[in-house]
Amino acid sequence: MIRIRSARSNNLKSLDVDLPRGKMIVFAGVSGSGKSSLVFDTIAAEAGHQVTETYPPFLRNRMPKWTRPDADEISGLSPVVVIDQRRLGGNARSTVGTITDTWTYLRLLYSRVGEPLIGESTRFSFNDPAGMCPTCSGLGETVAVDVASFLDPDRTLRSGAILLPGIVDGGYWHAKYVDAGAFPVDTPLRDWTEGERLALLYGGEHAARLETRPPADFEGLVEWFERIYLRTADHLSERKQETIDRFTRSGTCPECAGERLNAEARAVEVHGRTIGELASMEVSELPDFLTGITEAAVAPVVSALMERLRAMDGIGLGYLHLGRATTSLSGGESQRVKTVKHLGSSLIEMLYIFDEPTVGLHPQDVEAMTGILARLRDKGNTVLVVEHDPAVMAVADQIVEIGPDAGAEGGRVVFQGTFAQLREARTPTALALADRAPAATAPREAADVITVKHAERNNLQDLTVDFPIGVLTVLSGVAGSGKSSLAAELVDQHGAIVVDQRPVGANRRSTPITYTGIAAPVRRLFAKASGLPAKYFSANSEGACPECKGLGIVYTDLAFLEGQETVCARCGGRRFTDEVLHHRVEGLTIADIDDLTIADALERFEDRTIRKALGHLDRVGLGYLRLGQPLTTLSGGECQRVKIAKELHDTAEPSLYVLDEPTTGLHLRDVDTLVKVLFQLVDRGHTVVVIEHNLDVIRRADWIVDLGPGAGRHGGRVLYEGPVSGIRGTATSRALGQG
Asked: Which residues form the ABC transporter domain (predicted)?
């Protein structure tokens, strides 16, 4: 048994539970009930910490950091492998081939039996100078700064001629350029000399040629932009990515045509095919080609490659190609790619933890995923799965439901047993299983249509599709059938508000308080009650604890030892000075506000501005979030619902909305809440198009566009478009029970 006693992470209520080893256990419960707190923040955190502790300090400093959970006892653990939904890196050099090691096998194959023979396998690596294309440095595309978009020639430098974000009038960087002393700051840029414009853009030798030179540390705009936006971390905030898209131009590399390799590597063939051609073939096609390679010298390589490719195909990823960038994969695709890496492992008695592995999967494809979970268990491992899908619950050895509700009303074990026993219980999950949503009996009538014409993106086969205006439309079909491609064409051809699952906060200071804009009215309440200026009630300003600068934690770099995050000793994690914490509103300090859930705040505050902003978050099912919870800790589905709430708050004119699987991370009960929110958007005159696999959402849609019949080259066609009640003869109709 895995034995847990008095677990108290987040909202867990001194939880006790015994989990049988060597079994597949599904953790269910409403959103925010404490499932992740138990599985990830308690079990995974303790197992990860104990494994990390076995390594020398030098290595520990370079390994993932695990915060030990708050519990009296945790025993019976194994080394843990967490397979979550985080997208696979932002590194432009990472592809499906490199992340699954299939590219390593292909490189080895071509270095041994390729014609002509050109040497070691590194000659076929686009991450090695010996193999990469010299023009694009192995990236497959070239990115150039669009200098022409940096400046407005009709303005003066002082009045805002520099259009780059971050260089705004009155700001630090704007002053650096205006006060450089080398430019005619009150003359429109179109009247500057060529030398002056080049000096502003590129600095360096151009600046040195000016009669009046700028300071020695002067940095041209191009260098500044590249440093701030291009030479940065892998994971970019949404705002930074938008800026990069606006001020750069990218395109397929003219020399290697996107293959990433140099001319010598591109010329080598095995049985008439280059390695670049194999990289562009679908995973499901590659085994047919490999069976023709019978040279004894590479038999082990071919065998290992075939096993990996068939595993990818079996998990529903056969439509991918090895050259596809991992940055373009969805969270669900990323999770399945990670799973493939572990299928060939010879380790046993491991602890595998999955976070909603059916995300992004059509009901038809779920069986393949549950089969893989069973294979991992049958090898002698313990498999823990956080999941809402009844199909996964049905094949589990045991189900543990946490609840009964979200936030402060959750954190307890309300059921433990088999799926059959769950169906007889009276828990929130059992009740939701028994009360499935009805189909839309009277679909809304469309006001008009908007048409996507001749869509050929990715696998789309010259599609022309009408989308009805003023209704809820679902894009359905198996994974890889072309749903996202068609949605992207809709956005490109007609413009739309895209509500996706990308993070909404770039740093830990971003919280529901700051995101919703209620920080100012909350500070005003405290300022009025205390007589102090409002800025004293900001953890980013005068009221911040001077020790931790308002973060509540202090990070200590211990060189070769593991760096430590500790609760600030001066403020006890409260983030504010003692003077500020003396003042209260309705018995609460400003620090207590952070600990309130959105639902609690709605009950306590009468201020209309606060109630209106928080009400939208509560309506999309996020009432359990704490006001001070960093937005960086939210799941992809939670991020999407935060964005939906913002749109409910901001929208006025009828608009087109495109949403990507908004039910991600939602309990069956909460799906109904989400559908009602989508209906609110439609009732306000908006048009809503949703990419979705959830059958309860599909049943209640007004219109459906079903793509398929398969994935990749086997998809990209419209199988049906019309009212949901009329769909027949497709994978989606069979899942709906309509034949």
From this structure: 444-734
